[in-house]
Amino acid sequence: MNQTVIKSAFMALQDRICSDLEILDVEGKFKEDAWERPGGGGGKTRIIIGKTIEKGGVNFSAVEGLMPEKISTALGLEKTQFFATGVSIVLHAKNPFIPIIHMNVRYFETTHGTWWFGGGIDLTPHYIDEELASSFHQQLKNVCDKHASHYYSEFKKWADDYFYIKHRKETRGVGGIFFDRLDKTKGTKEDLFNFVMDVGNLFSTLYKEQVDANRDKAFSPINKDWQLHRRGRYVEFNLVWDRGTKFGLDTDGNIESILMSLPPESRWTYKHDFDEEEEKTLNLLKKDIDWVNRKAR
Amino acid sequence: MNQTVIKSAFMALQDRICSDLEILDVEGKFKEDAWERPGGGGGKTRIIIGKTIEKGGVNFSAVEGLMPEKISTALGLEKTQFFATGVSIVLHAKNPFIPIIHMNVRYFETTHGTWWFGGGIDLTPHYIDEELASSFHQQLKNVCDKHASHYYSEFKKWADDYFYIKHRKETRGVGGIFFDRLDKTKGTKEDLFNFVMDVGNLFSTLYKEQVDANRDKAFSPINKDWQLHRRGRYVEFNLVWDRGTKFGLDTDGNIESILMSLPPESRWTYKHDFDEEEEKTLNLLKKDIDWVNRKAR
Questions:
Q1: Distance (Å, rounded) from C-alpha A4 to C-alpha B265?
Q2: Of B168, B187, B229, B291, whose CB neighbour count within 10 A is largest?
Q3: Closest-CA residue in chain B for A263?
Q4: Tell me, what's the pLDDT at A295?
Q5: Nearest CB to A57; choose among B166, B232, B270
Q6: Which residue, B46, B47, B84, is CA-closest to B67?
Q7: Which amino acids of A are annotated catalytic?
Q8: Angle between helices A189-214 and A130-147 (to 10 degrees)
């Protein structure tokens, strides 16, 4: 289980997901933009502008080199070489009833012998469908349970805490799972790799369920307007609070690739009005909702 | 020259500017939303959705109370009462040829005897008109020159450095002036107050010139699309780099009032294409352009 194996597995994951998404979208095709990092390594940014998916990015990267000073100091590791590889996805659909979805799997190691995995999947519906949110969480739980009984509750809480828009006192959406620094204290490299790959391989199934349940729903200008305002919140989270984005912007990363997560279009209105349907969603943007068992209530 | 005088002058400035802008817009009227701060003081947020101005905010606030720990520690002042008052403006016009404009004047003092003024005006054209940019800077220079010969060059550079979108390697627009912590080492309270009020009082004239020169220009869908993408950059600056916004979000400020600066609508496209006209503007989003003397070139 070395760098090359993990990198190849992530590249293949990007390929599979892109292929799944093209089938799901029916019309859209990904355009690839390969890039190189001046300090070492590079990536393949793939963007889709489709029929169902208004704007989507499925990015692979594998970068290496001398650790940026900012990070090496924070980690207490000086003059170290690092290697980092990952797949990152954000999809914005046209239909306001289809949620925004985000996935990331990543692996990091240094020449000092440190290594870890991180990742997660989370869902941001513009309108929360409680059954679909429950099913989303149940499937994440199933994958987690295969690997360790404490994973789901731990990583679900981590997502609640991470995807929180502090200045709005709202969660970004219904959460999902989020984990970081899964290292040798948490399992063997093989076990953790298998877990991360299981998460990555679940992605297409999870998104397909959300799309198929909602793609034919008619929507009004009010629904579209609400979607654009909720996308505004997504922008606020990503630019103000997301550590991955901040890290990329601070370390002179590939800006266009980092900011592919931003929506195609968004709106802000001072104290925007909302109706009953929208209020129902707002009331569910809270931490610690037991989505798995909510359906049964 | 006490708190009350400064506060009243800022309130009157808000009134005058709102009245000027309603005349300029012809149709739009400001709606006022008065708010109170739990810790002391409050403000009046005024929003216009007009014919020319698509979304604009002219905010007044005067807040006081115990200094938030985060700031008192940073300033080395513990258990201090503070008083802060200011007027903040951001205007987004419908016509892409009318620039976004921002103004702020502010006064801060503590019970320890510390006080200072800050503020500035800067312009963010979607399409840079070099003559209008030059005129904008010339008028700012005239006001600065009335007070101190070094003000304009110093505060113009400060604006270039402050309104810089580091991750894009672009200035936000053509800059203007920015200044902070003008305290007793820089002049008497009366002199600095007079300078700040002169800056505030110039605002309507500056904006009127930009609006009148551009309001009747026809624009294409390409121009509108470009405007929405440039507004995306404005969002990026305000959420990622603007210290005022960050401070507000960190200290649990009045969120809707702080974020009134965000545009009504914005767009992001992966590696967005642009034509010659747009490229001309991009090439001018640089620090250290001598706008005052540029017209003569």
A1: 44
A2: B291
A3: B268
A4: 58
A5: B270
A6: B84
A7: 102
A8: 160
Tokens of A140: 């994440």
Q: Which amino acid is at A221?
A: P
Cβ contact B265–A264 (<8 Å): no
B102 catalytically annotated: yes
The distance of B78 to chain A (nearest Cα, Å) reads 25
User: Residue B175 pLDDT > 60, yes or no?
Assistant: yes
d(CA A85, CA A79): 20
Distance between terminal CA atoms of chain B?
A: 44
Surface-to-core class of residue B198, CB atoms within 10 Å of its CB (0-12 exposed, 13-18 middle, 19+ buried): middle
* Cross-chain Cβ contact A228/B265 below 8 Å: yes
CB A292 within 8 A of CB A176: no
Residue whose tokens read 């194996």: A5
> Has domain B3-294 been given CATH number 3.90.70.10?
no
Mean pLDDT of successive 10-residue segments in chain A (297 residues)? Answer: 95 98 98 92 96 98 85 74 95 98 96 94 98 98 98 98 97 98 96 98 98 98 98 97 88 88 98 92 97 75
Cβ atoms A228, A266 nearer than 8 A = yes
Query: Residue B2 has which token pair?
Result: 């006490």
CA distance B61 to B84: 8
What gap in Å lies between CA A47 and CA A261, rounded to an integer?
11
Q: CA–CA separation, B177 vs B120, rounded Å?
A: 5
Assigned token pair, A242? 């997301």
User: Are the CB atoms for A18 and A11 separated by under 8 Å?
Assistant: no
The one-letter amino acid at A95 = N
How confident is the model at residue B266, as a pLDDT?
Answer: 98
Write the CB contacts of A272 (distance below 8 Å, at least 6 apart in sequence).
Answer: A229
Give strand pairing partners of A117.
A107, A182
SS3 B93: strand
Q: Is residue B74 very low, low, confident or very high in pLDDT (cuts 50, 70, 90)? A: confident
Torsion of CA A196, A198, A201, A206, to 10 degrees: -100
Quote ipTM for the complex. Answer: 0.94
